[in-house]
Description:
The chain is an alpha/beta fold. It has 2 domains: 83 residues, Methyltransferase, Methionine Synthase (B12-binding Domains), Chain A, domain 1 (Orthogonal Bundle); 120 residues, Cobalamin-binding domain (Rossmann fold). The protein has 9 helices and 5 strands; from the N terminus they run ααααβαβαβαβαβα. A 5-stranded parallel sheet has the order 2-1-3-4-5, with helices on both faces. Helix 2 runs parallel beside helix 4 and helix 4 packs across helix 5. It is globular and about 55 Å long. The model has no long low-confidence stretch (mean pLDDT 91).
Amino acid sequence: MLLAELKEAVVNGDMDEVEVLCNRVLEEKFNPVEAVQNGLIKGIEELGKLWTEGEMFLPDVMMGADTLKLALDILGPELAKAEAEGIKRDVKGKIVIGTVKGDIHDIGKNIVSAMMTAAGYDVYDLGINQDIAAFTEKAEEVEADIIALSALLTTTMPEQKRLVDHLKEQGLRGKYKVIIGGGPTTNDWANEIGADGWSETAGGAIALCDQLTA
Length: 214
């Protein structure tokens, strides 16, 4: 029953309810990994399916992603303990995403972030106007697999190249896959700067990440 309620709370984007339920998980000493895997993640998967079928809208997906994030924040300490004991939940990979320095546009990035979460990735969204150091520091901190850079202005596109160059300078280029996106960007630009991939859409970004983490 608790698992079904957790799933429903995510589908409904009900942050108040998920907070109550996560506290129940802690109070009742329910397996936090099972709560996440068979409750919360099932909810975000269902939400992604409904969005794909046109039965849910983007704001619903983003609310569900925010609800999942809140739940993971609450259960985080217990999840860490469980993982330390060798009990791990299934995660496709870890992605650090953000809009580059000088760019304050975030709608496209938010869509991709929400859909990546729905697709089963741990997503660390840095927000807008982020310096290249913020991406690398977070990637190192969380042991990310992918760094995703959004640029919505032609004037900020060079920041994507700077990140790739910075990784090379730090001897980290081989450690992370770098993907880019944003209105003025193209696949040719991705190839020119040495990124690992580019996508025009959120669905394409997920397929790209699936390919890069396979």
